[in-house]
Design goal:
single chain; about 100 residues; alpha+beta; Nitrilase/N-carbamoyl-D-aminoacid amidohydrolase; four-stranded mixed sheet; 3 helices; about 30% helix
């Protein structure tokens, strides 16, 4: 999660209570054809990284990640608390036209 580390390092000097990452930042360098095949791996790696960073930096994180459930792919934002636990999640409801090709 090099990009995520770069982002969080930029804002830590301000001692934020919460850091919100850009939508789908964790798949920027993933080939479009690989996304569906690697969803579980990408989600696991993203959330493990976020859990570690939120505990280390003692801040809440909003981390967008892919989520697969009930055979569908979702564009989901996870709220990670200061203990590194998932405190909540929100599945994007209103998709842009091109997003409808990938997500529910």
């Amino acid at each position: 999660m090099i990009e995520g580390d770069r982002i969080i390092e930029l804002v830590l000097a301000e001692k934020p209570d919460i850091v919100c990452f850009p939508e789908l930042f964790s798949i920027v360098n993933v080939c479009k054809d690989e996304i569906g095949k690697r969803t579980e791996e990408i989600q696991r790696m993203t959330l493990e990284w976020a859990s570690k960073r939120s505990k280390q930096d003692h801040t809440y994180l909003i981390v967008p990640a892919l989520e697969e459930a009930e055979g569908h792919l979702y564009n989901t934002a996870f709220l990670i608390d200061r203990r590194g636990d998932i405190s909540g999640k929100y599945r994007k409801t209103y998709l842009a036209p091109k997003e409808k090709n990938f997500f529910v």
